[in-house]
Amino acid sequence: MGRTVCTTVAAAIIVSVFGVALMAQKTTQIKMGGGGSPHVKSEWTIDGANISITYGRPSLKGRPEATLMPAGPWRMGADEPTLLTTDKPLKFGALSVAPGTHTLNAAIGANEWQLLVGTLATPTQWGIPYKPDLEKGRAPMKLGTAASPVEMVTISIDDTPAGATLRVEWGTKSATIPFTVG
What we know:
Layout: H1 2-23, E1 26-32, E2 38-46, E3 49-56, H2 65-68, E4 72-74, E5 82-86, E6 90-92, E7 95-97, E8 100-108, E9 113-119, E10 135-160, E11 163-181
Antiparallel strand pairs: 1-2, 2-3, 3-5, 4-8, 5-8, 6-7, 6-11, 8-9, 9-10, 10-11
């Protein structure tokens, strides 16, 4: 009897721990874009903030990364703008982001990326061309190499003891920026 109870308790703990880890990010496919890229909404709860990112996920399909992520502003996805929605204020370095929905772009450089946060002017706004007059601010991202090649654009948030880290990966590139809630 004692052994059965211990086994049951151990199993419950394992399911509880892994269940929380699996629930940390919820990704839902919204639609297929006109160019064939799936569009997703990924959601997280970080330090009490409900955060979602909606974006198109283009594939490399054997194309060189440099032609798909040219120097300058990039919409971090396909078709419509990449959208960040938060119900709490966020802080990316010195850049404060108020609750609401914002566009996300990246200024691509050889050794560093910049996160560009902007205003969503209209619900039907397209992802290109980049509209500098809608930019709210920029923050530096750390550019690194993905652990393994990433075929489709992937945006994720990693929960950390000091807040969280926004991660954008495609091909061999991985760009990250830490942020805090509040």
